[in-house]
Design a protein that fits this description.
By secondary structure, this protein is mostly helical. The protein contains 18 helices and no strands. The protein has 2 domains: about 290 residues, Hypothetical protein af1432, CATH 1.10.3210; about 60 residues, no CATH class. About 0% of the residues have low confidence. Keywords: Hydrolase.
Length: about 375
Amino acid sequence: MLTAPYASQPDRSRGRQFPEPSAPTRSEFQRDRDRIVHSTAFRRLVYKTQVFLNHEGDLFRTRLTHSLEVAQLGRSIARSLGLNEDLVEAVALAHDLGHTPFGHAGQDVLNDCMGEHGGFEHNLQSLRVVDELEERYLPYNGLNLTFETREGILKHCSRRHAEMLEAREPGGVGLRFLNGTQPSLEAQLCNLADEIAYNAHDIDDGVRSGLITLEQLEAVPLFVRFRDETLREFPQAKGRRLLFDSIRRMLSQQVYDVIDATRARIAEHLPLNANEARQCPPLVRFSPGMREASTQLKRFLFKELYRHPQVNETTARAKQVLSELFHAYVAAPQEMQSAFAERGDRHRAVADYIAGMTDRFAVREHERLTGQKLF
């Protein structure tokens, strides 16, 4: 795989927290990807929600299908830009490992419950999963991933948590949040591929669910542009095929836009290697016009889908499930699996246990402990 000088090079990786001999047939980033795919947390993503709860339909996106879509988009863009595809894939597949059941509603509940015990951030939880919570290897906890993959997983981090990370790992993955530098270009790309993927598939899932209509999408200039393009070429197009073709064209144009805008930005700053790229302003980007169009789309989805009364109603029940679970486990830790029940940091242990649950397991546990059937 030919890469550009500013791409992350596996043979120049900053390494793993626990040194290991190299693999004879795989690069360091390929090993990271394989460890992620074989992890317990990755398998659980198939039963963790995006917008629609797991029981609401078999065809809606889950965290697993979303992660696969991000990896596909990321690799396509990385290949055109000369970035390291294996690192992009590893980060994309791992970026949601710490997400709670019930999507962002679960994160909000756990952050509230953990307010006096360090808070809860799902990006930081993804790092905890690969650094500490996975139990697959005898010499250490976690997956012992490379610095570059761990850096990409930690997409966001509060200053308070960054300072904690820096105290524990000086010069490590928390430092960039304190000194204002950037992650690798591969990590920057995953952030943008994540946005492209969820905007597109939330349109698809929103229409499939009946919560938004093609008529409502008239308010989204980016979608209308490609719907009209489809209709000019296929005047008889309608229904799901019209929707799919419009989304396909929109995705393709966003990919091309990122490639062109990023190439121009790299040509402006001319980083000579991956570390120089970290010292530049963000280089992987949309053009200004596409950034505005994407922002308009996000505003539409927030108003019409994420805050739809039906979504709000299920979100309220989901929050009740997780809040009551949290307090039940704090009061009776023996109700958790023994590995969590026996830990001394009870509140964090409860948060880790709940964050690792699938939607349906959380619902079953809530019903077992409270006798209530909310779903």
